[in-house]
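**Backbone geometry record:**
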Amino acid sequence: MTLAIRITALAFCAFALAPALALAQNNDEQLDGFTRTVFSQQNGAFGHISGIAQTTDGWIWLAERNHLYRFDGVAPELVDISSPDASDIGTIFSTNSGDLWLSYGSGRTIVLPAGDVHQPRAVPNKDAAKLLGFEEDKLGRIWSFSDDAVYETTGDEWHRIGKGVGLDADHFYSIRLDTDGTLWVLSNKGVFTLAKGRATFEHAEFSAPWITPHENDADNHSLRTYGNVYLSIVIAMSGKKEAPSYSGSHFRALRDTSDGFWVMSSVIGIRRASSPNSKVLFALGESLEKETSLDPSVWTKMSSSSGGIGFEDRQGNVWVQTRTGLELFRPNVATRLKLAAGDYAYAMLPDRDGSIWFGTAQSAHPYRWWHVASTITPAQGYDLDTTAAYRDVDDSVLLGTGGGLLRRFHDGKFESISPPPPGSDQGDDVIAMARDGQGKLWVSILRHPIARLESGGWLVKGGFDQLPDKGNRRAVTDARGRLWLSYPHEVFVIDGPHLTRYSRDEGMDITNVGDIIPDGITLLGGADGLAAFDGRQFHRILALDSSVLANINGMARLRDGSVWLYGQKGVLRIGAGEIERALKDPQYKIAIRVFDDRNGVPGAAQSSYPNPSLVQGTDGRLWLAGDGGLAWMDPEKLPPDQDPKVVIRSITVSGKSYRPDSVPALAPGTRDIQIDYTALGLSDATRSHFRYELIGVDKDWQDVGGRRQAFYTNLGPGSYEFRVEAINEDNTWTDAADDVRFAIDPKFYQTTWFFALCAAIVAALMWMGYLYRLRQVTQGLMRRLEERHAERDRIARELHDTYLQTIHGLVLKMHAVSRELPDGNPKKRILSALELARVALAEGRGRVYALRAGPMNDMDLAVAFRAIAQEFESDALPDFSVASTGTSKAVDPLVIDELYASGREAIVNAFNHASATTVCVDLRYDKSGVCVEITDDGKGINLQVVQDRGVPGHWGLRGLYERMERIGGMCKIECNTATGTKVTLIVPRRQAYTRH
């Protein structure tokens, strides 16, 4: 180990060491204020990194000799820039416009434009010199240097800066641009500066013995590549006239935006000095020659040797290259106190000057009450467990301990203030204390009812018998002097002589209340959530992630209206107005920003007493008591809430990946795809939380947590749109989603024309099937009709040959008998009977004629109905008329047949039985079907007969209904003894017409 290295580290120890229990913010020799993450080759990361940069879109770029990666903080992605001679990458640099500049060992300079890094362009250099670094001034000019020249360009071509502009040097080691826009150049002839707006360099009044290289140091690598070069520029920029005389040592240096100074040793490790001024830096340089020893314990060990390039990103994280990978140092929000090992269960109490007192219920240290200011100092003479602390009205401190004992601490002294409440034993700890509006002290002891201290001793439950017999966990007094006492599922409020209980009936269902904010909107936090009180009812507060509102054990409301909680998931910040909005809208889910151990928070809030686990100091800082110790955080100095930028990286199909801006139409038969995406811009990439949807496939957003890939299977042909969103640090979904559209071409049997052709074929087959079925049905109907007509012919023949012949013979015999009888009544009666027989014979012949008449499809129904009247003697008939509208050409023959038979039955009944003077037939053919109405003005039909569908033993009316039902029609009879009878026969269109 070289002397220079020992001198370097010891020098930092000299200005960074503090007392043994100093606060972490003053402990500069180790990186306690940062969370460290190591990326190695084992988790798919990197080898030897030669350059680090961050473009404006949030990507971290890493140069690894012959490869270039972009990194989202989780997984690296190899970028193929498809450039000739793209090997031996030396330096990379990001401009304000987002372009990425790369220099190569071959002397080439390549620019990857913002937004399209796959379209690189070259910046020619006639000298073909290997460039060693870049800077960009406020005019947009890019500056660089090589071993023997300084260059400038506006983006088209490098221009060498000659000695004619005042830059009179032969070797160059570094260039830097300060915040004023002045360019600083370190060379073998000293330091040169180019002020903003000036055209010539000026030689700065600065000297360093080591700047002029020794004769045996021809290439001078140690001077231009290690920390002494950077340190010299920083000293020169700070206004000092000279650098101390020390030899080049193997370290690199970085100054961050928080004015911290980082030193990275290739052998020892890394360390940071916070807020160094020029005096500190100059003293560091001087100490390099004076110190002769080294204590390695004050350095933070790297994951491997060769701590090299340091880089600070836009989020304030510092990236450090090692021989085997990369290390990330992320600044913590919370600063932990260095306490003795074994301490836990802390009771905290802010002091008036911004400092804080704390006690422990469990500690290996002999003292249990400590003061935290610039150092952590124990109060001498107090070795009892501290289970509760309360600042009294006289500014003294009341301390609770085991056995129900109370101590008063004032001006550095401890004294007992009263005997313990009755029944207290050694295991009964004091867990809560508060004074009510009358100044009475209330004390809660584990496993005992709360008690109030009176002049004569303790009054159990303060005289309120309604209070529970068990101890309560939290007691606080509001601005009105009301005392709030918390119990599982209930809260009691004591206001002078009045006691009010709030339980489940009033919405108070929080178990094990850990803390209460009584003023403003009253808030209760506990094991299973957070509730707000509107003056009458308690209301559960909902969050986007309900799990964060668990085991709340400390709360504070700040002046800006924000509410801070400490629970199982860490420290939670609820923005101003969120609670009010949740009270107005019970379904509203509040936004919560979470700070956990990744931000320096000491784990989950301590789950048991002492309470609370979060208090606000008088200087505005928040003090935290967690399972991992004590810490503080300043809510006024939080990093800004960052909205992540969601980026779709690629779409992968059948093992081939496509950029989202150049996805071709995917091949027919593509069913499975993979979409990779990420989020940029978050200080901690592991906090990323995503949801996505594939429009047309997903019914809603798919919440996938931190997963950065989407998989879809069994996709069909068509156009798709994929969208992805991420949660910001307030746990709300950002509006800035990224999306990609793609299409899958169909196979020939998935095309529209193929489906149309199939549909046409199916339609044709269905039509052919319909015609075939229609033909079958028609043939069946015709067979039925022929069978029916044959049967009617048979019946007609039998009637004619038997029944009618018998009747006819009877009539003839009776005529013969009548001629032999004398005139008189007997003869008249016989003649009358013969007349009836003649009528019956005529009617029978008519029936036979009707049976043999055949189908009516070739005859108009109107004509057929008119012909019925001819069967009767004209002088006995009522006035008879038939009216017809429409045409019967398309009416089914069976329908015509049944309509005729039914209509004839109704007409004959009207002639024979209605005693009507008028019978009218109205026949209508229209789009709804066929309708026949037979109306007479006769004596009507008995209503009971109509309801029974005829008289027993008679089948005329019943036949009407049966005929119509057989052809899918209906018969309707309306009758009135005053107006006559109306018979309506209706056959719907589908049953009536052969063509619909």
